[in-house]
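Subject: design request, 195 residues
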């Protein structure tokens, strides 16, 4: 895992964000349960990919400043836990993290490592809306019956509010991140000999 270019960082996010915007347009045009489910699926694909990109960014940054994050934080950013085999050997295991907890943890690590001040408040309406929309996503992803698969107009409106909130959150993170790392990239570029 080496230094990531800005394009490597942004390209997957722009692509998946485009899916979200297209699914919102489809939702507004059709407003049926199919379009509502598609919007929610696209929304959580954006959120999950964003968490992955944020974590990858942190892990790369931690290579040059490993003491900013604890060993446990770095292990959880890798989504790993450790155990012992019956022969006393260390075994690495995948750690499944619940999305809400994972997002909140990742935001805390971003703030801690980069010194950012992200607009995130787990006590506000946006976070409550996110958690309610996550329940809807879980219900339609793992339906126990026909009614679980249906998404109401109100639930879709809630999901769209969450989508707009998350897009603003990502924009805030990205602008702060670029402002933070730009001087580092510029100083490294200045150190390189002219070719």
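Subject: RE: design request

Done. Sequence follows.
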């Amino acid at each position: 895992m080496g230094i990531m270019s800005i394009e490597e960082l942004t390209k997957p996010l722009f692509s998946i964000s485009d899916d979200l915007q297209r699914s919102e347009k489809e939702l507004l045009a059709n407003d049926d349960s199919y379009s509502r489910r598609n919007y929610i699926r696209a929304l959580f694909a954006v959120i999950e990919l964003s968490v992955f990109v944020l974590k990858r960014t942190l892990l790369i940054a931690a290579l040059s400043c490993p003491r900013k994050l604890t060993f446990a934080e770095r292990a959880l950013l890798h989504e790993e836990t450790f155990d012992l085999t019956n022969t006393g050997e260390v075994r690495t295991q995948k750690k499944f993290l619940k999305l809400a907890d994972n997002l909140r943890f990742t935001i805390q690590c971003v703030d801690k490592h980069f010194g950012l001040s992200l607009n995130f408040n787990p006590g506000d309406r946006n976070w409550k809306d996110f958690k309610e929309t996550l329940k809807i996503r879980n219900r339609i992803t793992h339906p126990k019956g026909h009614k679980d698969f249906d998404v109401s107009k109100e639930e879709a409106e809630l999901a769209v509010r969450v989508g707009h909130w998350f897009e603003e959150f990502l924009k805030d993170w990205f602008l702060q991140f670029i402002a933070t790392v730009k001087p580092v990239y510029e100083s490294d570029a200045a150190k390189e000999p002219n070719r």
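The chain has one domain: 6-66+102-183.
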